[in-house]
Amino acid sequence: MTDTLGDPQNGRVRLFxxxxxxxxxxEPMAISGSEGRHWEIFESRTETHxxxxxxxxxxxxxxxxxxxxxxxxxxxxxxxxxxxxGEGRSRSSSRDDPPGNSPMHVFRRKDIDRLRLxxxxxxxxxxxxxxxxxLYFFHDLDIVQLNLEVCGNDLPLDxxxxxxxxxxRAYPSGWEEGGxxxxxxxxxxxxxxxxxxxxxxxxxxxxxxLSYVCQHRSPCISEHWASLLRPMVLAHSDEEGDxxxxxxxxxxxxxxxxxxxxxxxxxxxxxxxxIGLATMLHPNETLPIxxxxxxxxxxxxxxxxxxxxxxxxxNTRFMCTGNAFTVVGDTAFPFFVDGxxxxxxxFRHQYFLVFLIAHLHRASxxxxxxxLVDAVNDLDIRNDNSVRRFKRRIRANFxxxxxxxxxxxxxxLSERPHVQAMYRLCSNHLHNDALYDDVRDxxxxxxxxxxxxxxxxxxGSMLERSLHGLIATSVFIALVxxxxxxxxxxxxxxxALSDERLTLSGKFRAxxxxxxxxER
Length: 520
Hints:
Elements: E1 12-26, H1 38-44, E2 52-53, H2 67-74, H3 78-85, E3 104-108, E4 112-118, E5 126-138, E6 141-156, H4 157-166, E7 187-192, E8 197-200, H5 206-216, H6 223-229, E9 233-234, E10 244-247, E11 255-261, H7 269-276, H8 292-295, H9 297-301, E12 302-303, E13 317-320, E14 324-330, H10 343-348, H11 350-377, H12 384-407, H13 417-430, H14 432-451, H15 462-485, H16 487-498, H17 504-515
Parallel strand pairs: 9-10, 11-14
Antiparallel strand pairs: 1-6, 1-10, 1-11, 2-3, 3-5, 4-5, 4-7, 5-6, 7-8, 12-13, 13-14
Helix pairs in contact: 11-12, 11-13, 11-14, 12-14, 16-17
């Protein structure tokens, strides 16, 4: 495999947008006696970091409410609208039941202006503009999602594919013989609004990553990503910080990409496959034509509702693998690149939220599963304190899971066929439904495990277990025979108990009539 790209003139991307949606699991806060939630603590320390909470643009200033916001809002079903934007407001709202706000809490930093990428050693750097850089916290969930959107103009198609393959990796997967990180960008630098470098990647520091994994049994992330997330710090790091996070999945961050190209109909099938699977296929790798994903590329990953393959158009192709969501269209069609009403606006708003929700579902379910695994690992059934702690953790996890189900879990997001189709395509590739069923069954099993065995009748020798069974059966039969023998008296007692005119002493006399008298 060579380390050079193909001819950079074989295609140009006139407009390029990419959004990373990186979910992370938040650790329980280490503040002694803290009453705040993660985002409340995060917001209370704004003097120490550049993140600022975003006001609700839908409510604060009607003059700032654009058509793209309206189109985004009406794309979703009412219960999804309540999740994304909060409950409806009206002057007649009850003071005793005020409308609720959205369970999402968004923070943004504006001190970073550009991202400078040196994709490979010896290549000239590429600069991409930062569109926005946000953090999403969620009520009741120990999940935070980083969203970084960048854009660029007039880039070679091969360069864009290389960006999608190399950028958005939390740490190097290995090292080349020359010492540079394997598969990640050679150098990534955040450039501030003053033109100075705020932070840069350090994938070449091989010993840093090796020693961290050796010591903590957990991967370390690159410095340029760690710098973005501060004051939150990696769970196992030696940095001081009350807000700590850990990785949920593999180091490859989920990514969305928007490519406006000249004459997309001229792209070959191999080029389409390489664009749609850009995060999975090395740019210099020979196309694995026998891979099922390549053979079934169109049927598995493409949604061609707006692909006509005709001069009149539209010629917009949507591709989704679960971890990558890619839209490719023709620059000759103004609607495709329209950031207010066109496909670009939909990509940055409706489809971004579809992608964010699908990955929120997966990240939350994996976090629930992680809590269950940790609770089981800490369980010692011979220790009463351990059993009580286990039951408390399972009960709390079950309670949070119920709230997640009713607040965040959706099968349908929109009545618009294409929006709903893209959500199902993304969710299916992430296997969210199967993961939900697995987590739900695990919680049910653990919730009932100790509740059904108050006394350990299932332990001991065969003789002891037989004796336990005989005693339990005898008690059950005796209670049934007693209820039958006293059925008339029990009926009279229940009538007396429901009689509001009868005094408390009279009801006790009726009870004594059940246990203290016999039928004549």
